[in-house]
Amino acid sequence: MRKVSVVGGVTSEFRKETDRDITHIALESTIKLLKDTGFPRNLIDAVIVSSCSSDQYLSSVISEMIGIRPKISHRIDNLCNSGTNAIISAYSYISSGLCDCALIIGVEKSNTSGKILSNDFSRGQYNLPIFWGAIFKKIHMKRYGSTEEQICQIPVNNYLKAKNNKNAFNRSKSVNLEQVLNSRVLVEPLKLLECCSICEGSSSILLIADEKFSFFKSKISSNKRNCELIPVVIKGIGQQTNCASFSNAITDIFAQSSARMAAQQAYKMAGISPKDVDIAEIHDAFSILEILGYEDLGFVKKGEGGTFVYQNKISINSRGGIIGCGHPIGVTGIAQTVEIFEQLSGKNIHNLKLNRSPHVGLVHNLAAAGTSGTVLIMEG
């Protein structure tokens, strides 16, 4: 199997619903990525689009618009971890030798059909994600003693970090703990400021076969001297889907969750342990999910996630997380990966409270009540 690296990534500004066409939203990050890297379009042999929209043939339409004729072209949707699923597919194509370079584009509109899992009848009338977020929070507080103050500190942390991210949906907002604690209860005990904002945007990332790095670098036009490819290796991948229905997710989420299993796979493949991770993007669509992430990723034991909120050993959600950045559903996993790439490549060092340069980064991306989980490990 060939080694695979990320050599470029761009995330566009996340916005409220606009009248822009979904393809033009996709082009915002894609064209900037191609300009920044100077990568020859004729050498991109796979284009994969991540989106939960109902728009058809997106990958081929976008490829034509940007002048690419890929060998492989398709769309992937898997709700909130569509982006990391697309990255894993691209990784597999490159690693196996089916292609040498893949462009992965995440794009979403705010009114995407992916907001509701309409065929999960186990949810009954409670078919919005906020209901399972509320149940997870209630269970964790009762079973492990995590407090409102601990859980509500997560939005405080992530809103603060989002202020330094020009693309974040909530970059102009600041909240303190008292405001989070006193914000309107949406579904007991989950409050308004503990929840992410659905929005629109795009994020694009470029993967190549490591063995082709020198070749690709030499092919960048001489008149693009300011363009640079910086390889960040994908060292480990974990992917696990335990079920699709809400009822089964509740049974498994605190015992053997999909994210916990995916993390174990990724650590084994990368040959590292949780203590080696310097920086992590954790899926925090609701505040409690970040606490569950600490535990599933092995940063702390089960039940100790509440106290880990105040730690400073690992840089977590440096871009502002999903709560701070917003959640364009099919884009999130790619935007998380772009953030880790930028931090490990030295292109972006905001919000890192480390006494060293980060070396190992991790992406944690969930879908549908945690029924599906993805973990990526990258090394700079």
Task: Describe this protein's structure.
- The protein has a ten-stranded mixed β-sheet, sandwiched between helices. Strands 5-6 form a two-stranded antiparallel ribbon.
- Helix content is 36%, strand content 19%.
- The protein contains 13 helices and twelve strands.
- The protein folds into two domains: 4-112 and 198-232, 3-Layer(aba) Sandwich (Peroxisomal Thiolase, Chain A, domain 1); 126-197 and 235-379, Peroxisomal Thiolase, Chain A, domain 1 (3-Layer(aba) Sandwich), CATH 3.40.47.10.
- The chain has 380 residues and is an alpha/beta fold.
- It has helices spanning 22-37, 58-65, 82-96, 129-144, 148-162, 177-181, 213-219, 246-252, 258-270, 287-296, 305-308, 321-325, 332-345; strands at 4-11, 46-50, 72-76, 101-108, 185-187, 190-191, 201-209, 232-241, 279-281, 315-316, 360-367, 372-379.
- Helix 3 (82-96) crosses helix 13.
Helix percent reads 25-40%
Derived structural class: alpha/beta
Number of domains: 2
Q: Which value, in Å, is the CA radius of gyration?
A: 19 Å
Report the principal-axis shape. globular
The N- to C-terminal Cα distance equals 20 Å
Low confidence ranges: none
Q: Which second-level CATH architecture of the largest domain applies?
A: 3-Layer(aba) Sandwich
The count of helical stretches stands at 13
Oligomer: single chain
Strand content: 15-25%
The largest sheet has its strands arranged as 3-2-4-7-1-8-12-11-9-10
Q: Quick one: biggest sheet?
A: 10 strands, mixed
